[in-house]
Amino acid sequence: MRRRLGSVRARAALGATLVVAVALVAAGAAVLLALQSSLSGQAGAQADRAAREVAAELAAGHAYDRLSLDDEDRPVQVVTEDGTLVAATEGLERISGTGTDAVRPAPGAARATAQAGHAAPTPDDDDDADGGGDGGGDASSAPRPGEIGEDTAFRDGSATVDGDTADYRFASVSVETDDRGALTVHAGAPLSSEHSAVGTALTVMLIGFPLLLAVVAGVTWLVTRRALRPVEGIRREMAAITASADLARRVPEPHTHDEVARLARTTNETLTALQSAVERQRRFVADASHELRSPIASLRTQLEVGAAHPELLDVPGAVEDTVRLQDLAADLLLLARLDAGERPADARVDLAALVREATAERAGVRVDAEPVEVAGSRGQLGRVLANLLDNARRHAREEVTVSVRRENGPDGRWALVTVADDGDGVPEADRERVFERFVRLDAARTRDEGGAGLGLAIARDVAERHGGTLTVGQAPAGGALFELRLPAA
């Protein structure tokens, strides 16, 4: 179970379900609040309309027993300024939310209020009594007799009418009468439709949301499973390749243009590069073993002959084989370091001085060099020049020409070293093969004359490690022209 929850498919399904759940809860809460607010507003409008109808009747002078209070769905209270209930809906048994919980008019309240209203002074009398000065502003702002207040107060409460209890939205409206003074009308509108609608919506959400989340989880699970099926195929194939060590196998590539297809293609490219590297390493080991076998066998033969017959010991030949063996070991060690990714030093090297130093003891070499500095390893760059000069001297008829100059190109400043000979040159079809390891184009050439076939391979590897290139073309004299380009310091 833990493994299943740890899979990408399970996490994707769980994450999608959680996101949709949060969105649904937020949307559901917003819908319920909006629905409740809308229905509550409608109930408030109905209550306000009912309160103003009764207030209009009071403003018109209707007696309390002549008011429209018979609607059981809209409980109404009429309250005086001192909080005395003077009229109420017939059958009202309990009420809350209006400011007074009285349900029966007080005995004699209507008569007393009416008498008080007749005895109350008129606004003009108040103005005269006050001297017609300070009270003028209050009298003008207060409702005049027969006017209904513009403001409506709303409150939620409940009421019981003829044994039926329900929740109501109450509206309170004030009215000023001629004979009964200031009165307040409380009228209610039922909230049953609001509760019913909100309850229905909530029920639908409680039933529908889990079903929708289940559908989202199932669809995400299936879609993710289908999307990750190629990944599982790649994993199985990689496991089989690891188990069999067969680098010739490749993972299946889906016929799509998505990330999984790119992953499969990149994996196959990696396997191809790995297979090439392994095959190259195997060939390198085999060729190195073969190249080492010859000088070692020759040296051993000479030493065995010398041990048996000291007078026949070929000391110069033994020394030559030893030198060849030493040079080959040095070449193999340098190639191993290059293959391991060893970065060259970052010293400044004057190529012109390095060329003159490399050609100082070589006959038949003409030098034309201008000072150009590059950054890199002096020892490795000297090895490149030595290898190029040895190769040119081996194939030249009479002369080898070496030049060093600076080039300014669109991609920066470069140092160009050319080594040309007047030999037979390199056929165009073989101009890349000469840089492969242990490759000797002249099959008839002896190992003593041609070496092990590592010089040009080492030269190109060193050039590339220094950020440059090494290519071969045709010299003006018809021989081989090697061009070494390195970034100028």
Structure in words:
This protein has 489 residues and is an alpha+beta fold. The chain has three domains: 1-244, no CATH class; 247-342, Signal transduction histidine kinase, dimerisation/phosphotransfer (DHp) domain (Helix Hairpins); 343-487, Histidine kinase-like ATPase, C-terminal domain (Heat Shock Protein 90). Helices cover 51% and strands 19% of the residues. The protein contains twelve helices and 13 strands. The strands form three sheets. It has a six-stranded antiparallel beta sheet. The protein has a five-stranded mixed beta sheet with strand order 8-10-11-13-12. Helix 2 (8-59) runs antiparallel to helix 6 and helix 9 (351-359) packs across helix 10 (378-395). It starts with a helix and ends with a strand. Residues 112-142 and 443-449 have low confidence and may be disordered.
